[in-house]
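Suppose you are handed a protein chain with no further information: no name, no annotation, nothing but its sequence. What can you learn? This example shows the usual starting point.
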Amino acid sequence: MFSYPVRIALIAAIGGFLFGFETAVISGADKTIEQLWLLNSFWHGFTVASSLIGTVLGSLIVGTPAKIYGRKKVLLTIAIIYLLSAIGCASISTWLLFVFFRFTGGIAVGASSVVGPMYISEIAPAHLRGRLAGSFQLNIVGGIFIAYLTNFLFVDLGDNSWRWMLGIMVIPAGLFWILLRTIPESPRWLILNNREAEAIPVMNKLEEKDVPGAVRAIRESVKAHQESLFQKRYMKPVLYAVLLAMFNQLSGINAILYYAPRIFEMAGFDKSAAYLQPVYIGAANLLFTLLAMTVIDKFGRKTLMLIGSIGMIVFLGLTAYAFRDINTANSNVLIYLIGFIAFFAFSQGAVIWVFISEIFPNSVRSQGGSLGSFTHWIMAAIISWTFPVIVEGSAHGGFYSFVFYSVMMLLQLLFIWKIMPETKGRSLEEIQKDLGIE
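A reasonable first move is to predict its three-dimensional structure. Written in structure tokens, the prediction is:
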């Protein structure tokens, strides 16, 4: 049904599903854990952000094991961590242990955000790489949608409904571990570790037309396998990865995903409706990510980002306007946030992990992926931790938050227009040359 590279890319991308589910599922338990452990706005924000603090650590430390032990072994370890986190969060009753298991799940999210796209970009043919690497993002939004849907379905199960919301992740985590055992190691990693004899059969199965030429290009692209990322020749990809990752979170996306029911309650929806509206957001996220995946290799990364930036500026501004007076916020907030999610999914959501996995050369790809993911998650932790503090600390907190996000997207538009390069249709080694890395 699927070609070999597509099949193994889709298996690796299940890590993205777990990434998205872990990210969004806490929105269903948000109010319950606040009341269960009598948390003030600071510790409530910390509890929600504990997973994101884990992602920072996971993204920071995973590059070295991915380089030493290989992409496949690290992905298998990530699957086990997801499984343990789901079991722990669903079964404990003390706040400190809950934070610990959320933190552990965050480590898996941060690690998978680096290794998943890295693996897929390394096994994908150039003409399919945008769509296949983008399948990781598609799985992320699929996970977000299913998290919102299961939250809505479980919300009326009683006092322990939050345990069902968090525990259901054991099913996809177990499936991920089983399927990962069927995929090969990345041929680029094998070549970089002098295991060329193992890499060649894999490259043949991956439909590489010129295997000797590809092996030679990979070897020539690596002057020193232990190179440091932070040197002048890598300044451009470092700058692009850091800025793109920062802007991704400065859009406010994780504040919206983590606190969606709360935002809708602020807009006047009752509890049942407040849990249903995020399902619409998740569906829009999934739909427009699918649309982006069909055109990313045709239109290119930069074009999608330009379109998305303009749309996000408009809809974040409209959301801010709706919250200018907390007493007048209304159902239009749903329309505005769906509009924002649509443009986010079509641009930042579809592009970020593809672009970051492409722009770093073989010798420092694991380090570069870790840097981009680390930047993304440290910003996510800051945004998600501070959102409830800002909203609860001022009657106009919602207004100020969305104005800030809109202004940040204006700055992103300038970055995309003036600085960001296009990478569509280029092999990883050709992109390296385009960026002036000899």
